Amino acid sequence: MFDWLVVGAGFAGSVMAERLARDRNERVLVIDKRPHIAGNAYDRHDKAGLLVHQYGPHIFHTNSRQIFDYLSRFTEWRAYEHRVLASVDGMQLPIPINLDTINRLYGLDLTTEELAVWFGERAEPVEEIRTSEDVVVSQIGRELYEKFFRGYTRKQWGVDPSELDKAVTARVPTRTNRDDRYFTDEYQYMPKHGYTRMFESMLDHPNIKIMLQTDFADIRDEIPFRRVVYTGPVDEYFDHRFGKLPYRSLGFEHVTEENEWHQSVAVVNYPMDHDYTRITEYKHLTGQTHPHTSLTYEYPSDRGDPYYPVPRPENAALYKRYEALARAEENVWFVGRLATYRYYNMDQVVGQALATYRRISESIPVARPHLNGMLAPAPEAGMP
């Protein structure tokens, strides 16, 4: 008899398993459909010996000291500030759009103050900002929207930005200074030895058993357990009772080149041309020194593993019906991006898992107290 069955070995499931096993001394079975732990953050060494991210680049960043400290128990860090370029009009320009982006694109020499005025002259009034298109055109106008956002968003999500919730493009700010960092969070690091090693450390506990290539549907009636942490698609848990929730997937082409470098930054976006959305070069992320370089080309798709909930009003309404079922389910906790149908960053998933664990600790007596009767306190953590 396991005290807990944790479905999914990504961030949400692994954090929950670690806390339940280490802090409550309870027996946890972690299962995952894939042949590895770490979920979409899984990284591996390819044939050239380069560390690559199997499911596209994962860049850790957070403003939460609690979340950073919690993960620091399981990894050392390598400081890294992410920079992205966008291929537009035959140039590779900083994204998010900043002062250098505009000056180089249009051959100008604007100052920060002048750029704010320049944006204001091109911004289109929008009575109510509801969509991703509204966000951009109301701030910087339609021409920049067409060059940097519309094509990329249509490739990434399979629909026009005018059909997507405003949250999608609101994630990418516009700057009037020369700050070319993609994120501005206080803590920006990469796990020194990779994400998979971090997850191995997190799940390395005698109370945790792991079963890979295992489907929840195949074992839910075969293995005895008291409670469940579920991190898979919420509609799948309920056998798609109200229909399938739309998710966006990705296809990846991993390539190794014999030259030392391919591009000047880790990620180059392609909003205007090609079927792929971006190219990632991993040596920028890992700091590895190697005569060859490994890249990943990303191709968004409607088919394949679910990666991103599609933020549209009708999808949110459908999720609310599943959320009502989830709230009524006894002894099951739904955690993570897929289980709560939210477009979370990695640190937000960790924060959600720690907050869920805290609620469990406050409401459910410990099944297996430590021999000395003492439990280590759970770390305080919340959403950043």
Automatic annotation (TrEMBL):
Domain UDP-galactopyranose mutase C-terminal: 147-343
A Pfam family this chain is assigned to: NAD_binding_8
Sample GO molecular function, one term: flavin adenine dinucleotide binding
Name of the protein in question: UDP-galactopyranose mutase
Stored InterPro entries: UDP-GALP_mutase (IPR004379), UDP-GalPyranose_mutase_C (IPR015899)
Family to which the UniProt record says this protein belongs: Belongs to the UDP-galactopyranose/dTDP-fucopyranose mutase family.
PANTHER family according to UniProt: UDP-GALACTOPYRANOSE MUTASE (PTHR21197)
EC number(s) from the headed UniProt entry: 5.4.99.9
Entry GO terms, CC: cytosol
Cofactor: FAD
Key words, A-Z: FAD, Flavoprotein, Isomerase
